[in-house]
From TrEMBL:
Similarity annotation: Belongs to the class-I aminoacyl-tRNA synthetase family.
Catalytic activity: tRNA(Trp) + L-tryptophan + ATP = L-tryptophyl-tRNA(Trp) + AMP + diphosphate + H(+)
SUPFAM superfamilies named in the record: Nucleotidylyl transferase
Keywords: Aminoacyl-tRNA synthetase, ATP-binding, Ligase, Nucleotide-binding, Protein biosynthesis
One GO term (biological process): tryptophanyl-tRNA aminoacylation
GO MF term set: ATP binding; tryptophan-tRNA ligase activity
This protein's name: Tryptophan--tRNA ligase
Enzyme class: ligase
Membrane-spanning intervals of the chain: none
Length: 311
């Protein structure tokens, strides 16, 4: 069976972009693949330095995964920090790639341009992500467009290793759906926690409504483009064209319709989420990390032998 893997950072509450870009395709594809879903807490450490918030986010995102349909019986759901082989392999990849190569990473450049601290972890981030993916001989990685280059970097890390030490890693492919590659936020830019333009996935109905009502609209246009683009995640073009024709210029009504459409999808997931306890999460992550470690540990034995540290 081919392998599917993705990960999301517990750096804040998940938003609609995270869900449709990565989590939803993961859940849909997980039926056909042997699947791995990570909480990449060491990646979050590049920006989040509040232990209490990190702890809460980890528990929260695990609940989000399950509420969104990830099945702990069928998928291995685990926390990156529980599998130390990830950071170990990341180091080995860092010794294979160059500083100029890492300097070209868009995500790093964007984050630094936005004023985030250029810490060494942020800089080496793509090699930890490469380790996350390559340890499991992953075939396919569902992500949003912003992660496309990181998957290329993972392929490059695999190729560098294989050329240097012999064929050990499979080169993974990204899975990016055109329709949801870059979900726009309330201001029309990419939806992102750091742009403060998100619609929360598991917010209350009021929180979702507040975010939708704040979507920026062009007062001269007949149809509010930013509202339409988010709405197209929930309805077909033909449904939308009727609705938007019937409500020309009525932005409040269209936003109201979008709130109801989001709520119809999110309400059952929110209800499921409320039934998951912290202890359920701890048990699921413990079992998941045991399964993940068995695979990662065996791969790392091969890696250590290949690079010459096993004597
Ligand atoms: P993160 O936590 O920033 O985002 C999680 C996932 O959500 C997708 N995404 C979006 N998709 C569409 N439209 C948007 N506006 C949008 N915003 C976010 C991201 O593309 C991502 O798929 N580096 C990764 C985490 C990671 C990872 C991995 C992913 C670490 N190791 C291994 C896959 C495999 C990240 O920062 O995701």
């Amino acid at each position: 069976m081919k392998r599917l893997l993705t990960g999301l950072q517990p750096s804040g509450a998940l938003h609609l972009g995270n869900w449709v870009g990565a989590l939803k395709p993961f859940v849909e594809l997980s039926r056909e693949y042997e699947s791995f879903l990570m909480i990449v807490d060491y990646h979050a450490l590049t920006t989040l330095k509040e232990p209490e918030a990190l702890r809460e986010n980890i528990l929260g995102i695990a609940k989000d995964y399950i509420a969104a349909g990830a099945d702990p019986e069928k998928s291995t759901i685990f926390k990156q920090s529980d599998v130390p082989e990830h950071t170990e392999l990341a180091w080995i990849f860092q010794c294979l790639v160059t500083v100029p190569f890492l300097q070209q990473a868009h995500a790093y450049k964007d984050k630094v341009a936005k004023g985030l601290e250029a810490n060494a972890g942020l800089f080496a981030y793509p090699m930890l992500m490469a380790a996350d993916i390559l340890l499991y001989d992953t075939d396919i990685v569902p992500v949003g467009q912003d992660q496309r280059q990181h998957i290329e970097y993972a392929r490059e890390a695999a190729a560098k290793f294989n050329n240097t030490y012999g064929e050990l890693f499979r080169e993974p492919k990204e899975h990016i759906l055109d329709s949801v590659a870059t979900v726009p936020g309330t201001d029309g830019q990419k939806m992102s926690k750091s742009y403060k333009n998100t619609i929360p996935l598991f917010g209350t109905k009021d929180e979702i409504a507040k975010a939708v009502m704040s979507i920026i609209t062009d007062s001269k246009a007949e149809s509010p483009e930013n509202v339409y683009n988010i709405h197209s995640l929930f309805r077909t073009r033909s449904e939308l064209s009727e609705l938007y024709k019937a409500n020309k210029g009525k932005y409040q009504a269209l936003k109201g319709a979008l709130i109801e459409d989001i709520e119809a999808v999110v309400a059952p997931m929110r209800e499921r989420r409320d039934s998951i306890s912290d202890d359920d999460v701890r048990r699921i992550l413990k079992e998941g990390s045991e399964r993940a470690r068995a695979i990662a540990g065996s791969k790392m034995n091969d890696v250590r032998r290949a690079i010459g540290v096993t004597i």
